[in-house]
Specification:
Layout: H1 2-6, E1 15-17, H2 20-32, E2 43-45, H3 52-58, E3 72-75, H4 93-103, H5 105-111, E4 117-122, H6 131-135, E5 139-146, H7 150-166, H8 174-187, E6 201-203, E7 207-209, E8 215-219, E9 224-228, E10 243-247, H9 251-260, E11 264-265, H10 269-275, H11 277-293, H12 304-313, H13 315-321, H14 323-337, H15 347-350, E12 355-356, H16 363-373, H17 378-384, H18 386-393, H19 398-410, H20 416-424
Parallel strand pairs: 9-10
Antiparallel strand pairs: 1-2, 3-4, 4-5, 5-6, 7-8, 8-9, 11-12
């Protein structure tokens, strides 16, 4: 992973924490979770407050994610809203954190001047044993505390102010007045500063969970659809009216579900040509075959002429694999006729030709599923399914790792927003990816 770290392809864009007062507040939050304080003079954090360095120090990657449910968070600064989430068990953790920051920006801005917020994103379950546990999570509640007890002091001051207003003799209570002055020195004027978050309950929308090797949950008006390995506890081979279950290896039914619910953008010349998606996937597939034939080949050093010569010499391999000539044929077809008859395409090849519908709210989740079904498109895998990418990366040859890192840094990292808009039609950048 050293090469990924140096290229900022793992744990990139994190926030450096080195100020003693921020480290002290972080340690008080850790103590609130029952964890030992860090002895590090500096570390980095993501949007949720997760730190790779502290995870290594504690020997626990899930120190903010116990049981991989009821995710913990530590907020030291409002600037965390602009950071990615680099370690999570649910794909929508970042979206929930964005909602929390947006709904409670005044309180977060005010509290973090002198304090840190921490707590849990509480689900309706404490442990996930089967699919039913995941499906029972309809909404989450942010349980929020503060490291220096700023929230508790603000609540106490509010109570004393109310008492002062309602009890005629309260003005003569010197102890009460002195306590109010003492609290106000810490909290400021609570009539002007909103120190207590206003919105704490948020809806749990469609998501991917990393439990049982990965479970996709899609929500529609009257039905819920679960896509995962059939061996997952709670998977039902029958199809109840309210919940449908699809095997992750059943490309036919996955395609039918996504297409029928308008989650896919089907091949049309209008976007296929301008996006360059087919050429992008074809090139990665071809270079992957080169690596398969000879893992010692320096793929970064080869050019188009070399590739043409290699394809002629290895035509049997290219033909037996089939993916590269298939994409070339489909590209010519869509440019000549304007579309592709998907019913004529084998189910296992259909996901090479589609992307998530850009206007659908589940665009990111759908693209994540597509990237898992088209694993040789490692760029899409990195963009939408980093956990899957990192797992696959471990099995690449050294030369292929060099090529993968060079490709990602030379394309995606150069301009993420423009790249996602061109290849996947993503119109707004709200992913922090």
């Amino acid at each position: 992973m050293k090469r990924l770290l140096e290229a900022e392809l793992i744990y990139g864009r994190l926030l450096d924490i080195s100020e003693p007062h921020l480290i002290a507040r972080y340690n008080k939050a850790l103590a609130g979770f029952g964890l030992r304080p860090t002895a590090l003079p500096s570390f980095q954090i993501d949007m949720t407050g997760f730190s790779p360095e502290i995870a290594d120090e504690l020997g626990d990657r899930d120190y903010l994610d116990p049981n991989r449910v009821n995710r913990r968070f530590i907020i030291l600064t409002p600037a965390q809203e602009e950071l990615p989430v680099v370690h999570t068990s649910f794909s929508n953790t970042a979206a929930l954190m964005h909602e929390f920051f947006a709904a409670n920006s005044r309180a977060i801005n005010a509290v973090t001047i002198k304090d840190a917020l921490y707590g849990e994103i509480e689900d309706s379950v404490s442990v996930v044993n089967d699919i039913d546990d995941l499906l029972s999570i309809n909404e989450v509640r942010f349980r929020v505390l503060s490291a220096e007890d700023m929230l508790g002091k603000a609540a106490e001051l509010r109570s004393l102010v109310d008492r002062l207003k309602t009890v005629p003799t309260a003005w003569a209570d010197d102890a009460l007045l002195n306590r109010m002055v003492e609290l106000a020195k810490v909290t400021g004027d609570i009539r002007e500063n909103a120190l207590v978050p206003d919105k704490l309950v948020f809806r749990h929308e469609a998501f991917w969970a990393n439990h049982f090797g990965g479970v996709y949950v899609f929500l529609d008006e009257k039905t819920t659809t679960v896509i995962c390995d059939p061996s997952v506890p709670g998977f039902r081979r029958s199809r109840p009216w309210q919940v449908g279950y699809i095997s992750l290896s059943d490309h036919q039914h996955i395609y039918e579900f996504l297409a029928s619910t308008n989650r896919l953008q089907l091949p049309q010349a209008s976007w296929v040509e301008s996006s360059g998606l087919y050429q992008h996937r074809a090139d990665m597939i071809l270079r992957g075959l080169v690596n398969q034939a000879d893992p010692a080949t320096d793929i970064n050093a080869i050019d188009a002429i070399w590739l043409q010569t290699w394809m002629h010499r290895n035509s049997a391999l290219v033909s037996s694999d089939g993916a590269y000539p298939f994409l070339q044929t489909m590209l010519r077809t869509v440019l000549a006729s304007g579309s592709i008859k998907m019913q004529d395409v084998a189910p296992e090849n259909r996901f090479l030709l589609v992307r998530a519908a850009p206007d659908h709210p589940d665009q990111w989740l759908t693209n994540r599923l597509i990237s898992q079904l088209v694993p040789r498109d490692f760029v899409s895998r990195f963009v939408f399914d980093k956990q899957g990418f990192y797992t696959a990366y471990e099995h690449y040859s050294e030369k292929f790792r060099e090529y993968v890192v060079a490709t990602l840094t030379g394309t995606y990292l150069r301009d993420k927003v423009a790249f996602r808009k061109r290849l996947y039609g993503i119109k707004e950048d709200n992913s922090n990816a």
